[in-house]
């Protein structure tokens, strides 16, 4: 084996090792990390504060969650809102099989019953709210084991 081949193999080995290390680091953090079960965020339009909490660890199948809504500016609870919750699995490109039932529970809280997550993996749960002419929405990401 000549010097050029040895240098090329050594360079290839270093590049491969670095690529594997970066892939491992990317898998350990950031967007690809496990999503927290309790999630809270200001909506995309900045009008509402959303908090979505699973009632039990998420499973493949039907899941129940509790949604709490507050006015982002005043902190006042949001009652009487029209709410739509959908879930999509970005990796597979398909949505949850049917919409969950949503019941107002009082004090800005809403029960989300029967959110069907049909397979393990990362799910994008999209919450859209309309209240007194204001529309806001948020995306939460959950990992189903």
UniProtKB/TrEMBL annotation:
Keyword presence, Glycoprotein: no
Signal sequence extent: 1-26
Keywords (A to Z) from UniProt: Signal
Keyword Signal found: yes
Domain YtkA-like: 48-127
Any Pfam family the entry gives: YtkA
InterPro entries (UniProt xref): YtkA-like_dom (IPR032693)
Name of the molecule in the record: YtkA-like domain-containing protein
Organism encoding this protein: Polyangium fumosum
Species classification: Bacteria, Pseudomonadati, Myxococcota, Polyangia, Polyangiales
